Amino acid sequence: MAVAARIEDAAGRGGVLSYLPVSLFGSVMGLTGLAVGWRMAHAQYGAPAWIAQALGALALAVFAALAIAYAIKAATGFAHVRAEFAHPVAGPLFGTPLIALLLLPLLLADAHPAAARALWSVGAAGMLAFAWWTVLNWISVRRTLAQATPAWIVPVVGLLDVPLALPALGWSGELHGLALLATAVGLFFALPLFTLVLSRLMFDEPLPAPMQPALLILVAPFSVGFAAYTATTGRVDDFAAGLFLPALFLLAVLLGRLRRLPACCAFRLAWWAAGFPLAATANAALKYAQAVRHPLADGLAWALLGLASAVVGFLTARTLWGIARGELRALSG
Q: Cα–Cα distance between 326 and 321 in angstroms, integer?
């Protein structure tokens, strides 16, 4: 049975938008990450500025719409929210709205610095609390290997997102210690969680087909770790390269695994799990290319930005088409 169906069965019927998954905030992460990537491409290569602006506006609009929709879900059927939060697979995905709050300030810092700082502050406080609660829950409640999915990495990735907007917000100096804490804890916990999920993939049943794109979350600790480290230290050194290069290797492995997915499986909102890891890897490639200044690095950055744009564009169009046809409940299954 699908995760959404299990949650609805656990909570009972009733409530408006009870089927809306909190993981859909991953669409805001993907759109925001892609907007940041095209902004970097504009600064480095002279790409059209309107692309980043349009993506940023769309990301803000989607976040506002989802925040209202999920608030309606909570107000009319809080039991569904509570069941989703307690679910071993869906629960870690409550980090996605918090990560969105940490990423959106990258788009707002120049024009609306006060709003950007407010959003980041809420996101950082929430992410630190959520990561603490998640780790405490993991060591307090017995789990099974079958419950270990790539979604478990989301709270860790959330911590790695904490430092990203600090330079744009002008808080790099004041909050350097917090940036170090988030980067160190995020990278430290990424390793055992990555190993745990990899063990599940090797020795247990494969992930259900609708959840296969979530495998790309395995790339995120490396690509986002690269971004967090460079934002915290202000440099791209050998350690940073040691984070970025494994992301490329993993991406090559996983793209080979997922290349047939659109042809064999029906679209689900869970596919949005692929958007942010691809955008984050493209952004890491752009920053790496800026540091090494080599034509191959430039070509790789453009290729990954093109790939991320194509995937996020497809996910956006297919989701909007599904909503227009009244298929949101089916797509959430």
A: 9
Phi, psi at 111, each rounded to 5°: -90, -35
d(CA 11, CA 127): 26
Task: For 175-219, give the DSSP string.
Answer: THHHHHHHHHHHHHHHHHHHHHHHHHHHHSPPPPGGGGGGGGGGG
pLDDT tens for 109-160 read 999 999 999 999 999 999 999 999 999 999 998 888 888 899 999 998 899 9
User: Would you say the C-alpha torsion 132, 137, 143, 148 has a positive or negative sign?
Assistant: negative
Domain 3-331 fold is Glycosyltransferase (1.50.10)
Q: Quick one: CA torsion of 210, 213, 215, 218, rounded to 10 degrees?
A: -140
What pTM did the predictor assign? 0.93
Which amino acid is located at 232 in the chain?
Answer: T
Angle between helices 275-292 and 295-324 (to 10 degrees): 160
- Write down the domain spans for the chain: 3-331
